[in-house]
Amino acid sequence: MTNTKFRWGIIGLGSIAGQFATGLQSVPDAELAAVASRTQEKADAFGEKFGAAKRYGSYRELAADPDIDAVYIATPHPMHAEDSILCLEAGKAVLTEKPFTINAAQARATIDAARANNVFLMEAMWTRFFPVMVKVRELIASQAIGDLRIVQADFGFRAGVNPEGRLFNPALGGGALLDVGSYCVSLASMLLGAPVQTTGVAHIGETGIDEQAAMLLRYSEGQIAVLSTAVRTNTPQEVYLIGTEGKIHIPSPWWKPSKLTLSRDGQETETLDLPYEGNGYNYQAVEVAECVRAGKTQSSVMPQDETLRIMETMDALRAQWGLKYPMEN
């Protein structure tokens, strides 16, 4: 790269794109260079708000821009695969918002496109890059709580039912699992790997999506993950990591964490304050830039094969619930 700034483009300009654009403002060497929407008016308004010089009325125009180092895909869930592949085939590094795709088949096709074009691709699981989560991985690796045996994670909130909105519309990939349950499944994956047994129950609401769900995952050495998620129920939004010699507690909101509590058998409980900078979205942007500048095509913190396994786990859960989206028929 000849430019000292790492130049970002954003495709899809809803609220999550605004969060990411805000996060970029906390990264000294990041520049929001271009944005794209399906309407020129929206691109112009977003570009004006966040200082993007180039404002495109189509995604294809941004993908073809030679002066973009990476593209953040912030479109609705069902468009993630198509929009990511568009950019990957144009040779762009891509950061795709979670859930990575609707299902594992789409995830596999997207990853195949990245590998065929030898370009960087990562799922935007922003929670993994917070200082608290970096510390959690260090503590688990050093066996600070002995062998990790149980992961308990919960993420639910109560939203008003809007059949046309993204949370409740099957055509938009609605439901608790893909929207916020994916955080829980990803956390369990990060710490325990791929499950050997996947069991779940869900309440399917009047619009045909999972309004709340509970999941139980078993792993090869007997570890278990107990996970819950909801879009119609306010839940504690906490994490407990329970080991043979202690436990780690991440208080609410664990998905945007700033501290953890470490309790080791026979020792006083420690509270570790690990504040984050910016709004938290900046950390994943830094990871992408560092990987791309180092010539890497994926991140070791959020590798592509793991993203695929997470989608397979969520596919297995939805199959048990009889939840299939219209675009999957």
From TrEMBL:
Domain Gfo/Idh/MocA-like oxidoreductase N-terminal: 6-122
Oxidoreductase in keyword set: yes
Molecular functions (GO terms): nucleotide binding; oxidoreductase activity
Keyword Oxidoreductase: yes
SUPFAM superfamilies referenced in this protein's UniProt entry, alphabetically: Glyceraldehyde-3-phosphate dehydrogenase-like, C-terminal domain, NAD(P)-binding Rossmann-fold domains
Membrane-traversing stretches: none
Keywords: Oxidoreductase
Residue ranges constituting the GFO/IDH/MocA-like oxidoreductase domain according to the UniProt record: 134-248
UniProt xrefs under PANTHER family: OXIDOREDUCTASES, TRANS-1,2-DIHYDROBENZENE-1,2-DIOL DEHYDROGENASE
Sequence similarity: Belongs to the Gfo/Idh/MocA family.
Protein name: Oxidoreductase
Organism: Capsulimonas corticalis
